[in-house]
Design a protein that fits this description.
The complex is a heterodimer of chains A (280) and B (253). Chain A is of the alpha/beta class. Chain A has helices at 25-43, 65-77, 94-97, 100-103, 107-112, 138-149, 172-181, 198-201, 214-227, 234-243, 248-258, 268-274, and strands at residues 54-58, 125-131, 155-161, 185-190, 205-208.
């Protein structure tokens, strides 16, 4: 009898350690530094001015922007982080069990989980995700900004996903004042930076996502197939890399499709004829 | 006399025919169908007086060379319309020979004047070495890229207004010739709609389009980031033939 394989929700899969991210080397390097800095501040109970840290992540859809931010937050708040590799625990600590990177971590919840591995109290880290696709009117954005202004003391991290969606009705200009005045780590992501106001972009440190090399991605995909018990053909892996234009999130769709058939798995026929990475 | 003047261009044309037969003058069409002339008069007493030229046929220096040639050989000065007639004949003669050559100046001219070429050239630099698109998606991406970089209009030409126009442009041999010269391959595949494969020249170090500025922090053993398809295929097959080593416990999301 074949060994039971625990297969994750492939389409929503997030890496659980830094080494599982593909490409994006520059962003990873700087995010690791940020993890160290914020954790050190939280440990010595010092909140210094973080206003200068406003970051814009730019890259095509599914290239890993949101995944990186969520992983960053998980590393910052994990109570059993490996201080050497900066990898978080496998989900065993009380904080990681709450999945703070998915639903946010604010107010009392942030305070409850603000403890180190030896139970020592730390400065709470508040994390809010604002999905800009759900903000239709300036009033909705204003509500978020007022809530941000009234946050309790601590380290605050705000992530505006798909910020170009606020360009409609000039809403990204409302962020200008908040970014200037409010003490927080501001993270923004967009697949369409061209539409953003220059005044807004000029206030942000910009990072572009980097695609992995072909061989790196092919090996990575084969590792995932083996890990998740998906049979595969080597040629099929190569075609997934090519058809996805080396965008990892897109390539995972092919694996999700292949996982429906435990016997055939990822075949060249499936990749060429059944899997459409883009539709018009 | 009037009769003599009328025969001057025929006299010169006859001599030019002779030079063409001897291979000292060559007329042809270049990769984009434009008439070119290459004049190289050697091994004659007069050779020292005729510099070698390789120019578009209707370039003003070709007219100067012809007039100079005529004066030295026949002590005759041609009128403008006589030179025009000679050039027209040579243009017709050039239809019989084509070349894949494309002078840098022509290439630059085409990049400057043809929005599709300019946009594609810059666009592929931002993508992986090989990428695949449907025509519709490619047109949307290129249009957006062109708009962002102010390439929607170059000279008198506009960027195609729709995917069907883009498709027609990409099928033109002249556009294909220019893109080939730039090292860009565009392959159109008719299968469940129109698919387009773009391939650009190798990156200087064979890496992905963005060069990582730091050592790869990936936990795998060092991977050579090469784009060679066969090499990658071989590596995957070797990996498949080895027993699978259990990875560290991963918590499924």
């Amino acid at each position: 009898m074949s060994q039971q394989v625990i297969r994750p929700d492939i389409l929503r899969w997030l890496p659980s350690r830094w080494g599982l991210f593909l490409g994006n080397y520059r962003i990873i390097r700087h995010f690791k530094k940020l993890v160290r800095k914020v954790r050190r501040m939280a440990a010595v109970r010092t909140v210094v001015d973080l206003n200068k840290l406003c970051v814009l992540l730019v890259g095509e859809s599914r290239s890993g922007k949101t995944a990186l931010v969520k992983f960053l937050v998980r590393c910052i708040v994990c109570q059993e982080l490996d201080e050497e590799t900066l990898n978080p625990c496998p989900g065993s600590c009380p904080c990681c069990r709450e999945r703070p990177e998915q639903s946010g971590l604010e107010g009392l919840n942030a305070a409850i989980h603000a403890y180190g591995p030896k139970g020592e109290e730390r400065v709470p880290v508040h994390f809010s995700v604002i999905d800009c696709t759900l903000i239709q009117t300036p009033e909705q954005l204003r509500t978020h900004l007022i809530r941000i202004a009234n946050e309790t003391d601590g380290i605050r991290i705000f992530y505006f996903d798909e910020v170009h969606r606020l360009v409609h009705r000039g809403m990204e200009e409302m962020l200008l004042k908040a970014v200037e005045d409010k003490q927080a780590i501001w993270l923004f992501s967009t697949a369409k930076p061209g539409g953003l106001e220059d005044m807004f972009k000029n206030r942000l440190i910009k990072f572009s996502t980097e695609l992995p090399a072909m061989e790196e991605m092919a090996v990575w995909l084969s590792d995932r197939c083996e890990e998740w018990g998906i049979p595969y053909e080597a040629e099929a892996i190569i075609r997934v890399v090519e058809k996805s234009n080396r965008v990892v999130g897109t390539a995972l769709h092919a694996l999700a499709l292949a996982s429906l058939d435990d016997d055939e798995g990822l075949t060249l026929d499936l990749v060429e004829n059944d899997w459409e990475p883009r539709v018009d | 006399m009037a009769t003599d003047r009328m025969n001057n261009d025929m006299l010169v044309m006859s001599r030019l025919d002779d030079e063409i037969r001897r291979g000292r003058i060559r007329v042809y069409r270049n990769a984009v169908g434009e008439p070119y002339v290459h004049c190289k008069i050697e091994n004659t007493l007069a050779a020292a007086h005729f510099p070698e030229i390789a120019l578009p046929l209707f370039h003003k220096d070709v007219r100067g060379w012809l007039n100079h040639f005529t004066w030295r050989i026949f002590s005759v000065l041609l009128q403008k319309r006589e030179v025009d007639r000679i050039l027209e004949v040579l243009a017709g003669r050039s239809l019989g020979e084509s070349s894949t050559e494309l002078a840098d100046a022509d290439l630059l001219d085409l990049i400057e004047s043809e929005p599709v070429v300019a946009v594609l050239y810059e666009f592929v630099q931002t993508k992986p070495k090989k990428s695949e698109w449907t025509m519709q998606t490619l047109w949307k991406e290129l249009y957006s890229f062109a708009k962002m970089n102010s390439h929607l209009k170059r000279g008198r030409r506009q960027f195609p207004g729709g995917p069907n126009v883009l498709s027609r442009k990409l099928r033109k041999p002249q556009i294909g010739a220019v893109l080939n010269k730039l090292g860009i391959t565009v392959k159109l595949i008719r299968s469940n709609g129109c698919k387009v494969e773009l391939e650009r020249p190798d990156d200087t170090e064979g890496q992905s389009s963005s060069q990582p500025s730091a050592a790869n922090p990936h936990e795998h053993q060092a991977i050579r980031p090469v784009d060679g398809r066969e090499v990658v295929l071989q590596r995957l097959r070797t990996k498949q033939s080895r027993p699978i080593s259990k990875p560290e416990g991963e918590t499924p999301s």
